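Good morning C.,

I know you're traveling, so I'll keep this short. The sequence:
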Amino acid sequence: MSEHETKLVKKIADQKAVVAIVGLGYVGLPLALSFAEAGFQVLGLDVDGEKVKKIAQRESYIGHIKSARLKAAGSLFSASTDFTLANEADAILICVPTPLTKYREPDLSFVEGTLRSLLPHLRVGQLLCLESTTYPGTTDEVLRPPIEAKGLTVGQDFFLVFSPEREDPANPDFTTRTIPKVLGGTTAACTRVGRALYGQVIEQVVPVSSTQAAELTKLLENIYRAVNIGLVNELKVVADSMGLDIHEVIRAAATKPFGFTPFYPGPGLGGHCIPIDPFYLTWKARAYGHHTRFIELAGDVNCRMPEYVVEKLSRGLNLRNKPLKGSKVLLLGMAYKKNVEDMRESPSLEILRLLNEAGSLVEYSDPHIPVLPQTRRSRFELKSVPLNPETLQSYDAVVLLTDHDLFNHDMILKHSPLLVDTRGVFQSGPTVIKA
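The tokens, ready to paste straight into the viewer:
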């Protein structure tokens, strides 16, 4: 072990290391709180001044993270927009978005911009970890060269690792501490330092041989889900043509005690990982002469599901002598998954756009999203409408897109003139259309 490795590992073990978290969103904020709760001094860095202000006021801006956790962290957790403070940190963890371009290619602008902001303030004896999901080779090809060009020697006086986030917002069964953490270092020394750090707040750290292996591990996890969801989405369309309920079939298949894992269809894929991550691998695979047809096919199936939902809605309205154009439609749930306010890549936004283009009069109701925020995919100025019998009866059709627990399903079923169910919540009936 080098002198710098020995000093940093000891500082971590003594909980005297300062940990900086760059990006205080759904990944960064719970990670920052986990380190503060373990006794570390934590510095949050973000370009969003509103988030920094909320943290100073000890107010959570993420629904499933209670403000009480921020208050309990006390002086151990502070936040700033001043990236020069990174020089004071012993460990810097990057948790910024890695979206796609409009051509479905990796967009590393947030990672690269973060590195440019940090680079002047990096020093000997620090650990830098990238947690953002990306293609194999990013850590070694994008982060390492500028760091070493600065005169730092990775693996000797500076330590570089990749450890992908595994957050599942609002999942009560798992926390940051209890979800095993995969970690790969640029060198063996980097892995040892990274393992020492994360071992302070994570129950099980899973080391792998390289940053590339850790990067591919994250992609495999989400591609596995994307492909299987694409399979059941395709089977849903086939089953519907046969007059069968795919949810009944999945429930029956799930009784097999071996060899089957249930996945469930929906109106499309949403969230910050599953709709995006497969395309990071397909892009990188082309550099090696491979065409990932299986993965791309699943992505195509999932991307087409919003159109399928709109088509089913149109058929249902036609049977009632009403065209899609001019019909009043209420969308239930704009978040990408139940019981959260996270709208990243939500298929509900695409369905809203398609209906708007078709001339429908569209509104939404979501107890977690009182006002529809402006995003790169949505410029609609809408507010959530109250959900009651009178509201439901005033629409030509109601479309359940996100099955929040706060929705009163009995009331929705009883008072919706036409109900399109994309989540398998309702039994088939004269007013229910499975989509």
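Safe travels,
E.
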